[in-house]
Amino acid sequence: MRSVGLWRFQVPIDAGVVLRNQRLKTRDGLLVRLTEGENEGWGEISPLPGFSAETVDDAQSVALQWLTAWQSGWGSELPELPSVAFGLSCALAELNGELPAAADYRAAPLCTGDPDELFAMLEALPGEKVAKVKVGLYEAVRDGMVVNLLLEAVPDLRLRLDANRGWTPLKAQQFAKYVNPDLRPRIAFIEEPCKTREQSREFARETGIAIAWDESLREADFEFAAEPGLKAVIIKPTLTGNLAKVRAQVEAAHALGLTAVISSSIESSLGLTQLARIAAWLTPQTVPGLDTLSLMQAQLVREWPGSPLPCWQLDKLERVL
């Protein structure tokens, strides 16, 4: 006997988050539950504004159709919409015992705020010290000075930088000018520094700073290939699609000797805990990029270990099905 549940949520975000020039005040999405006999599986469907082609309303409509068919016993294929395909595939994987329980709750913390507090936090990181800095939001010179300061202050720190294609070649060079060449090898990579892939490749050639592909993975002409200066690919499952596609991308990257990083699209705590399990399963040697729960004012259904945020249960959500 099969049964289904679908809930819509809206979690306030602290101070708002700017995504592609729009401010996000809440994180909206859907939680899905599949039940068959004594087994159940959960998933999260949360299109990311500015990045996902589909809206939450689009996702809800498509999810409802699929859930109705699945409950009736049909083995229908997963929908095309990436966020829906990912959430439903997670629910099916849990239901069928295919998503391992072990999780990698390490996160590359985002470096923001008071410098003294930041240095103390970085010094206290257990094991491999990996942190992330968003660049491209302010002046490139300022970004270069901040990155240089962090690398100087914490000698065993490795930084992942994310520019979201925010720089012209000139601005990218201005950034690099303020990072000591001796410290550049400790920049693990910078995600998509320039507006085009070719500009980013040129940046890597000229500066010796490694790059990573992120947005490129979701473009029609993208192919996995080993390239000089390319060290990693950033895989955001909510934007990628079903678990089989996520796994195929990880395997394609690893076959080329590239690092694959499982990364958040600002999911709720339920989605993040599943991403931590996917990271432990598919990329066990790599710290995932899951440090986004601090943006939220509440958790949903499942708690992230050690988070002080209140955890909302289903009675606080709007039931759709």
Chain-wise SSE layout:
Layout: E1 2-19, E2 22-36, E3 39-45, H1 56-71, H2 82-95, H3 115-123, E4 130-134, H4 140-153, E5 158-162, H5 169-177, E6 187-191, H6 197-207, E7 211-213, E8 230-235, H7 237-240, H8 243-255, E9 259-262, H9 269-282, E10 299-300, E11 311-312, E12 318-319
Parallel strand pairs: 4-5, 5-6, 6-7, 7-8, 8-9, 10-11
Antiparallel strand pairs: 1-2, 1-12, 2-3
Folded structure, characterized:
- Strand 6 (187-191), helix 6 and strand 7 form a beta-alpha-beta unit.
- The protein has 321 residues and is α/β, with parallel strands linked by helices.
- The chain contains nine helices and twelve strands.
- The protein has helices at residues 56-71, 82-95, 115-123, 140-153, 169-177, 197-207, 237-240, 243-255, 269-282, and strands at 2-19, 22-36, 39-45, 130-134, 158-162, 187-191, 211-213, 230-235, 259-262, 299-300, 311-312, 318-319.
Global structural class: alpha/beta
Rounded to the nearest angstrom, the distance between the terminal CA atoms is 17 Å
Q: Which runs of at least 5 residues are low in confidence (pLDDT < 50)? A: none
**How many E-type strands?**
12
Describe the global form: globular
Strand order of the largest sheet: 4-5-6-7-8-9
Helix count equals: 9
Say what oligomer this is.
single chain
Secondary-structure element pattern, one letter each? EEEHHHEHEHEHEEHHEHEEE
Helix content: 25-40%
Radius of gyration: 20 Å
Estimate the strand proportion.
Answer: 15-25%
Q: What summary fits the major beta sheet?
A: 6 strands, parallel
Mean pLDDT: 95
